[in-house]
Amino acid sequence: MGKQSKTENRVHATIDGIPVAVAPGTTIIEAAKQVGIDIPHYCYDRDLSIVASCRLCLVEIEKVPKLQPACSTPIMEGQTVFTKNDAVLEARRMQMEFLLVQHPLDCPVCDQGGECKLQDYSMVHGCDASRFRFPKRTFPKPDIGPFIDLERNRCILCTRCVRFMEEVAGEAELAVINRGNGAHIATFEDQPLKNEFAGNTIDLCPVGALTSKITRFRTRVWELKSSKSVCTLCPVGCNVFQQYRNRTHEVLRIVPRENDAVNHRWICDMGRFGFDPFNSSERERVPLLKKDNEFERISWSNAIETTITTFKDTVQSYSPHAVAGLIGPRHSNETLFLFQQWFREAVGSSNIDHRLDRVTSAQDDAYCTSLALGAVNQPLSEIQRASTILMIGADLPNEAPILHLAVRKQVAEGTRLFSANAYQTRLDSVCTDTLTYAPGSETALLAGLIYYVTREQGVVVSEELKSFINKIRITRIAERTGIDKKKIQEWAQLLLEDEHITVLLGSSILSSGWSSQTVRITAELLSLLNENEHPLPISVLLPYANSRGAMDMGCLPHRGPGFEPVEDAGRSTTEILQGCMDGSIKALFLFDADVMEDYPDQSMVEKALASVPFVVCAGSYLTKTTDYASVFLPLSMVSEEDGTYTNFSGRVQRSLKALPQLDGSLSGCQLLLALGERWGLGWKQVHVSQITNMIAQAVSHYAGLTWEHIGHEGQSSQNVAKKYVDAIPGLILPEDALDEDPSDDFPYRWVRGPFLFDLSGNKPYAKALVERSEPCTVRIHPFDANELGVKENSSLTLKGDLGDVKLPVEITSATAQGCVTVLGKYKDIAVNRIASPERPWVKINR
Amino acid sequence: MVSETRVLLERIGNPEVLTVEGYIKKGGYKSLQKVLTTMSPQEVVNEVKKSGLRGRGGAGFPTALKWSFIPKNTDKPIYLCCNADESEPGTCKDRVLIEQDPHLLLEGILLSCFAIHSHQAYIYIRGEFHRGAEILLMAIEDARRHGWVGDNIQGTDFCCNIEVYRGAGAYICGEETGLLNSLEGERGQPRNKPPFPAVAGLYDCPTIINNVETLAAVPSIIEKGGEWYSQLGTEKSSGTKLLCISGHVNKPGVYEVELGKMSLREFINTVGGGVPGGKSIKAVIPGGSSMPVLRGDELDVNLTFEDIQEKGSSLGSGAIIVMDETTDIVEAALIIAKFYAHESCGQCTPCREGTRWFVQILEAIHEGRGKPGDVELLLEICKSEYTSICPLWVAAVWPVRGFVTKFKEEFEEKIRNAKPNAEISVIQETA
Fold first, then answer.
1. B177: helix, coil or strand?
2. What pTM, to 2 d.p., does this model score?
3. Stretch among A168-182, A534-548, A713-727 having the lowest mean pLDDT
4. Residue among A67, A132, A133 whose CB faces B386 most closely
5. Residues in chain B within 8 Å Cβ distance of A99
6. CA A88, CA A703: separation in Å to the nearest integer?
7. CA dist., res. B11 & res. A388, Å (int)
8. ipTM of the predicted structure?
């Protein structure tokens, strides 16, 4: 019966004599694809609205007088369609001739050559000579920014780029202007493209009208090989192809690799155009040893010998706890796993951490809490199922760009989106409603929501919750958050309208000292709102590409691989830095950990690094941090390393290397295996896949995730679930979360946030990213600017407890009143040297 | 004796009828009053059906049939758009109605809205018709004051608003879906069909788009009955038709005739006053510049939609352009081709590329740079006529094909006489 109704629900027709049975509403072009018939097309794209304007896909339908576009015409029951008869071929040939009438035919100098649909279709459907003998139309060439080259003379006006920007990216920065033969693609007044997904138009453009300025004239596409890789610039881990040329040892292009569980077929411009640091001649290739304050080149054996000897001496002379290590969580799971394994096995210390960007105590970690609550492993498809999304402290466009696209699409399809943050984000314009809370008060806001939700519901089952609510004084919460209590009540009512709510917590919530409670309270709120939702639909956005992997691998002072609690817990990042200062830590291993840039208090880092006698730095570039290195060990980059990475939702993905290692550098795994071998652990060099398979054994929720099984598309790790109840804090509203401690001397709240177009990490080595970057500014609210008498285009000096920095001012109501916001990290501007996280207050001097 | 039959133009030339009072004094709003008090919407549709009224915009589609395509029991609002974007070269009939008898149009709109259950009508008027737009706005305001437009018209349950929307100078916005896009504030370019506007038109709601002349015919159909109207003209070309005659004639202008009562030649020679200087007629375009031309020896055709269609052309919008023996046919074709190249929206390939290619070839032939094979190439390009989204490409193809096939010898002569070293006029069109 079921089967029968299924067949009834199909439309039966014939295409070129081949019978098809498709779902009602299927277009002819898609139906044909299902039986292996490729109907040529330019304007049609399955992810964009249908315009049927290129007229290349015209087909004949029996009994229909005119040819019909296959892309826009649904196939009907009993139809007979011809895609290759004389009438169709003649029309197609004519359209091809039309399209080439004005085309410059400059294939020899066009980067699209080799993957151009004009070339391909001309070969198959066109003719070999043109009957056009007149002067061709030309257009002026605008500069639309550092990433994309627009060559209008090659454009065939398929408008895929225009539709992508409007329909997918959500910012209609491209348009067709003028009409008829003068119609052409333009940005408003030739301004540069700003949207961070604009690069996708290069892939969508079927001809050479939109090409990459970064790759321009550097290669021909047939020279390139592709590796199935993963982008390591944000915690989403978009699937990409790294396209490279062995002859010159260069990655020359990064394009998206389709994966519906992660990035569909899009990537952001950072991931796409940020590959030049792989190729830069400024990369370090030789180990360095500090002698008389100068680095000198040494051999690898010498470098490893020095490192091992000093660490061993420190362990013997003091104790294993006098050694500590920090690792940058952009590395692969294998490197992260070996790092903690080496520390725990060789050194015998758990003084390891990956949380470089925040003040941490060993125990407090929202992420462990959320995992323990059975939350977090929320694949994109789960988020997409929600009919309401609540974002707290999340700035998707800047911290997880591709997620921003997914959420935007969902909103367009009817999902409600609520966003509460300390400042306005670009996604606010599509939100159902937004709130701006006083910085650091997200926990108070969540408690306020619980307060009103339970009041509306009328019943409170759990005793713990009852006592929690009894302690809430709503006026105090309104005061702390700066939000009217009626507004909080309104949100509670709006949330109660739905039972399929998912929460996205921004990485900013991890920065408070009570982030575990934030997650706990969020979980409580969700269980009040949602019916029978297990696991809890909470996603925490993480600050780095593999922060999740670093935790799963046990790069934490209190937890080993798979979150197993360790008996002899070590020190957190903050505690390690303190240890360096007080002399209890004698040797520090900074494995690609740029603490000078990442840690929120640079003066503390500076003091710590200056005090600790021995610092080993591993990395690909010299940084402010490596200035303090006693030994520097050059590492290869993601373009040269195989490995697996775990994204924020627990999806484990494999990234294959594009190029062989640069002479002189070691991969993270090779270095750690060499250190283990030299320490006498009996380790030997193996392929990364063997370490992956070890992880599948050692990390309980990675069971079965072998190198083979992960495959090219990746696999979800299992839920950690309620196994580690010790990580769940009791339900309390921390007093700290309700208190603010401003002083008259420092009247403005100091707020930092992520920024996609900043100059952090390796971005300064990518010329195009430098050009695209936006300068570091201090954002203040127009009212505050007015009060201070500050005008646009002027500069301000911010002074906090750590020091002062002068920055250009940006007056914007996106920043809350009473706050000064600085987004992003900049190589030459120490924004982490103004106010300490404990005293986030500044004064403004004009 | 061949003469005019004035039904639509009955009140023309009388400034009094610009006001509601004057219009009523001359028998206006009688039909609407009758409908509001004694008829059902279906009865109005039936009368129009009986009348055999066909769309006067150029395509000649039966009006009542178009109305019947609106989905039954739709819960969306239904819109009526009056197409007053009269832009087809040679056509100037709607302008006369709008400027000289605006209330006739309003009454026609209101009657049609009543028939199709619409409560909102838009008059999309050509941007250059400044005066027409002003007159319509004043007339609507006047009608509103007198209770003929707005809520509870004449104390009945029928509510209907009329708004005037001015175009911005694009021929393509006279194409019905281009009109809808423009009205919505989008780029004025046509939509793919299906869906047809009657199902999903303005703001995705059922929408009927009728020409000014079509709507202006409704009041007399209601007043005197569909039966009466269908008796005028011929069976397939019932009623009267406004004809705009221009070019080499003594009495250019807009005239109203009963179709089927005279031949095209008779019309030109009597109503149109004949050709100045008694010259002979070389060519006539019978229905606006997009229709294929007729040779001077093909004019003894009965003036009906169907007879002219038989000659391979069409009465179209009723714009008759007469060209005498002195006319340079290649230049005439070039001028028309230039118009369509200028007005192509640029959305779809054949029209965007083909219209300009036409101009380039015709220009070359005209300037003495033609090459053997150019005539054949023009006809080859014409073969793609039905591959575009909207009829603009067809409108560009037909005149070219018409001129080239009917006057092939003139094109070939120019090509034969081409000067091999003729200077190429380089077109530097940077948009």
1. helix
2. 0.94
3. A713-727
4. A67
5. 349, 353
6. 55
7. 63
8. 0.93
